[in-house]
Design goal:
Blueprint (H helix, E strand, L loop, with lengths): L5 E6 L8 E3 L3 H12 L5 E6 L3 H13 L3 E6 L4 H7 L3 E3 L17 H9 L6 H12 L3 E3 L2 H7 L2 H5 L4 H5 L5 H8 L1 H5 L5
Parallel strand pairs: 1-2, 1-3, 3-4, 4-5, 5-6
């Protein structure tokens, strides 16, 4: 298989992953990309809480260094990521992300609510799909991950949950729910 080495994620606190580079300003983003360019990566990973300004600086600096960018950014719209020149949008849920942190839809439940109201036949969606195709931007669907995070039952039955917990700290909570005490929570006596 082809292996495409991706950078540690660039994000802001609170950190979700043990391999995160804290990147809170456009200047910090540019420095992070310059450091990453000295490593063996081909793609810079932008993560959840980056602001539109930091995302833009990261993408622009990566382009200057000939690096690809993959964005799983919950608070920057797909339109703004495309304007900045992103190469890949990670997790299809990011296609309808808002442009500001602290949005009431900044949770899994909020994302699902937003998706349930999305009109796939709208002009906005058609323009976005056309733009993604015209600019040859990849979209990683992550549908299995999204489905599992939307169902506690599916997540606690995930056979690889212990492995996932090594890089996904929130998966540790699901391991706790697997235990007898966790399974009993919320049940009437």
């Amino acid at each position: 298989p082809d292996i495409i080495p991706t950078s540690p994620v660039l994000s802001t606190p609170p950190l979700e992953w043990p391999f995160t580079h804290i990147t809170e300003t456009p200047e910090a983003a540019r420095r992070a990309v310059q450091r990453l360019d000295r490593g063996n990566v081909s793609t810079v990973a932008l993560h959840h809480r980056l602001t539109p300004e930091v995302a833009r600086a990261t993408i622009e600096e990566a382009r200057r260094h000939g690096l690809y960018t993959a964005a799983d950014v919950k608070h920057v719209s797909a339109d703004r990521l495309l304007e900045a020149g992103v190469d890949c949008i990670e997790c299809v849920a990011n296609l309808c992300s808002p442009d500001h942190p602290g949005s009431p839809t900044a949770s899994v439940a909020g994302e699902m609510r937003r998706w349930s109201h999305l009109d796939l036949a709208s002009d906005r969606v058609a323009r976005l799909i056309d733009r993604l195709a015209d600019e040859e931007v990849f979209v990683t669907t992550s549908l299995l991950n999204t489905e599992r995070w939307c169902s506690v039952e599916a997540m606690i039955e995930e056979p690889h949950l212990e492995y996932m917990a090594t890089v996904m700290p929130r998966a540790e909570k699901m391991i706790e729910v697997r235990q007898a005490v966790g399974k009993g929570r919320g049940k009437k006596p």
